[in-house]
Amino acid sequence: MAETNERPLNFIEKIIEDDLKEGRVPGGEIVTRFPPEPNGYLHIGHIKSICLNFSLAQKYGGRCHLRLDDTNPAKEENEYIDAIKEDIRWLGFDWGKHEYYASDYYDRLYEIAVRLIKEGKAYVDSLSAEEMKEYRGTLTTAGKNSPDRDRSIEENLRLFEEMRQGKHPEGSYTLRAKIDMSSPNINMRDPALYRIKFAHHPRTGDKWCIYPMYDFTHPISDAIEGITHSICTLEFEDHRPAYDWATSIDGIEHTPHQYEFARLNINYLLMSKRKLLYLVNNNFVSGWDDPRMPTIAGIRRRGYSPEAMKDFVNRVGVAKVEGVVDYALMEFCVREDLNKRAKRLMAVLDPVEVVIDNYPDDEVEYFEAGNNPEDPESGTHQIAFSKHIYIEREDFMENPVKGYHRLYVGNEIRLKYAYYITATGFEKDDDGNITLIHAEYDPLSRGGEAPDGRKVKGTSHWVSKEHSIKAEVRQYDKLFKAENPGEATGNYLDDLNPDSLIILDNARIEEEGEKASAGEYLQFIRNGYYCVDSKDSRPDHMVFNRTCTLKDSWAKQKAKMGL
Ligand code: ATP
Ligand code: MG
Question: Contact 422/439 with Cβ under 8 angstroms?
């Protein structure tokens, strides 16, 4: 954390410190807001915006509002609003009583629109969407005035009132600001302020059938709430003149300012709510909180911690230039964090049984295992050992290849925490699968070291057959196998990774695993970081999700393939 305090100021902090110094901040209180549109779940990109807005408020002793930008009634759902709040809280931020909705301002916005009409600064236009586009002009050619631009104030007032009363169908009229059809900035060519939409709104019900547009609603909402620094992503840079136009309408008592920063893009991930919704609706994933989704709900269920994600966005920093951040950096932050906090357990994901023939039949011994070697305070727990154990199938080879140091007939290995064992034989079923490995242990090697000092090259994890629980383990990997999903064919679905979820339904976890609960961070020794699935795990059928591997197997795999 010391690092973050010592890092140089980002450009927004510089602006804020300047504004404070020059007395440009009313009352000296910095007010920011996070303004999600409730049309989907929040994703990792939003974490950057959330951290930025809430941290600035914290750092400068101000406040950050949560504003639900609910101006698009057809797409909104209360489920999204609840999820948004849960996700922000999970990140550790609190908006206190400052929970607002753009729809709170509908009356005020309507009143401002009427005043603009009365002042001759807005008009009702009957151009169709098509025509409006044509009249708007292009980046290189000026637009031209709509024939309705000079409609009388009286007629504009009457038509706008009729629009409000529901007397006109959708698309028949819009209310537009009268600014400048030849402005070099297309957003200033008489932008639409209101459109007709017959939709039930989750908060205002059927009160309205006209809804204000983003470029009108957003700046005025900021002004009403006393936002001092309105921070958004770069794609809104071209909208800044419209923002400044709206906040300088007569009678608006406070003038906020908009600042743009580069959005967070990460390779292998899609971060567009529209595309994520498509994946959900078409069952490419199990829901918005599928552990493969780049949503906050997804990564939480996958076992990422808020601290790791905050560390990640801190490292990425706040800039003015767009770039793509490497997925590996995010996983690096996740691993760093989990290494410090994850409780170590032994789990055998693909078990094969080993019988230790010279071990007494009914004997059970307990070994002490550290919960986390990185954290001396984390304590220890007991692991039961007995004659019948499981090891990973890949930790035994019938015909060992050169350089294989794990178990094979005649070879001695260490069972972590316990004893040295030497394989003496094995049994197979009719299909040629190994069903049982015979071994002998050296009683003198108790604790995992031989008194004569002889060394073994392999150490395997294991669980006792009678003292382990059967569990389902979900091996998650990246949802997309291409760095830039859709780049090759134009369709991101072509880049879905067919191996993004592999279910192992016969895994065995040491008994201590039974105590694990959702939200706890675990490491299965040698296998990776895991967590209890918050949705599907039950006491009689535990389900564990792989959060990430211990090392970046993806990079290794790519290197092997020569990519
Ligand atoms: P999407 O394109 O995924 O639908 P959005 O920008 O439409 O996202 P909003 O709900 O409007 O989503 O975003 C709320 C806030 O989060 C906005 O201020 C927006 O600029 C910011 N934001 C969205 N995506 C990112 C991102 N990838 N990186 C940083 N900030 C983001
Ligand atoms: Mg949006």
Answer: yes
Nearest to 388 by CA among 439, 423, 343: 439
Per residue in 449-493, pLDDT (tens digit) is 899 999 999 999 999 999 999 999 999 999 999 999 999 999 999
Cα 345 to ligand 2 centroid, rounded to whole Å: 43
Phi and psi for 141 in degrees, rounded to 5? -120, 145
Query: Is the confidence at residue 77, as pLDDT, over 90?
Result: no
Residue 47 and residue 295: Cα distance in Å, rounded?
A: 10
Atom 17, ligand 1: which residue's CA is nearest?
232
Kindly give the interhelix angle for 106-118 and 214-225, rounded to the nearest 10 degrees. 110
pLDDT beyond 60 at 557: no
Is 343 marked active-site?
no
551 C-beta neighbours (distance < 10 Å), count: 11
**What is the Å distance from ligand 2's center to 191 Cα?**
18
Lining ligand 1 with CB less than 6 A are 35-37, 45-46, 48-49, 232-233, 263-264, 271-273
SS3 64: strand
Residue 562 has pLDDT above 80, yes or no: no
- Which residues contact residue 404 at a Cβ distance below 8 angstroms, ignoring those fewer than 6 apart? 397
Q: Which ligand is nearest to the CA of 69?
A: 1
Q: How confident is the model at residue 3 (pLDDT cuts 50, 70, 90)?
A: very low
Q: Clarify whether 111 is annotated catalytic.
A: no
What is the rounded distance in angstroms from the CA atom of residue 100 to the CA atom of residue 103?
Answer: 8
d(CA 463, CA 125): 74
Ligand 1 atom closest to Cα of residue 271: 3
Does 5 score more than 70 pLDDT?
no
Which atom of ligand 1 is the closest one to the Cα of 49?
30
Name which of 344, 391, 335, 352 is nearest 372 in CA terms. Answer: 344
| Identity of the amino acid at 402 | K
The answer to whether the beta carbons of residues 460 and 413 sit under 8 Å apart is yes
13 catalytic? Reply is no
Amino acid 553: pLDDT: 54
Ligand nearest to the CA of 264: 1
The two tokens of residue 499 are 């191996």
User: Ligand 1 pocket check: which of 52, 263, 266, 324 to mutate, most ligand atoms within 8 Å of Cβ?
Assistant: 263
Round the average pLDDT of the chain to a whole number and report it: 95
131: Cα within 13 Å, side-chain hemisphere: 12
3-state secondary structure 199-233: CCECCCECCCCEEECHHHHHHHHHHHHCCCEEEEE
Reply yes or no on whether the pLDDT at 243 is more than 80: yes
* Reported confidence tier of residue 7, pLDDT bands at 50, 70, 90: confident
Write the secondary structure of 463-487 as one string of H (helix), E (strand) and C (coil): EECCCEEEEEEEEECCCECCCCCCC
Average pLDDT of the residues in 140-161: 97
DSSP state of 284: S
Length of the chain: 563
DSSP assignment letter at 262: P
**Distance in Å, CA 106 to ligand 1 centroid:** 23
134's CB contacts (< 8 A; 6+ apart) are none
